[in-house]
Amino acid sequence: MKDNKKIEHRWIDDSIEIDFKIPSWWEEEFKMLEKLDREYNPLYLVIAGDMEDSMHEDILSGDLTKAQAKTLCLKYNGPKVYQWEADLNEDS
């Protein structure tokens, strides 16, 4: 029997819904982030950490609005990432 249990992400905030079309180049980036999150790969933190800077050009070109970029950053590089980093620093 197939297990229909939803994957709990470590860093991606599943409570944030993306209800707008994102540029195709970001779709590939988000697929890679999903994979890295499932693997608990720290490379996720490097890539997600650069998102906000990378999206600046998309805002200037009109491919994303500021609100859309903020929503994407909150989903992929938001409080779950910062809490994990804070917990990691406490353990040091």
Quick overview:
With 92 residues, the chain is mainly alpha-helical. The protein contains 5 helices and no strands. The chain has helices at 24-38, 43-49, 51-61, 66-77, 79-91.
Q: What would your notes on this structure say?
A:
This protein is mainly α and 92 residues long. 63% of the residues lie in helices and 0% in strands. The chain has helices spanning 24-38, 43-49, 51-61, 66-77, 79-91. Helix 3 runs antiparallel to helix 4. It is globular. The protein starts with 23 loop residues before the first helix and ends with a helix. The model has no long low-confidence stretch (mean pLDDT 84).
Keywords:
92 residues, 63% helix, mainly alpha, globular, 0% strand, single chain
Sketch the topology as an H/E string, one letter per element.
HHHHH
Euclidean distance between termini CA atoms: 42 Å
Strand fraction: under 5%
Largest sheet: none
Summing up helix and strand content along with how strands pair, one would put the structural category as mainly alpha
Number of helices: 5
Judging from the principal axes of the Cα atoms, what is the shape?
Answer: globular
Unreliable stretches: none
Radius of gyration: 14 Å
Number of strands: 0
The average pLDDT score comes to: 84
Tell me the helix content: 55-70%
Helices and strands in order:
Elements: H1 24-38, H2 43-49, H3 51-61, H4 66-77, H5 79-91
Helix pairs in contact: 3-4
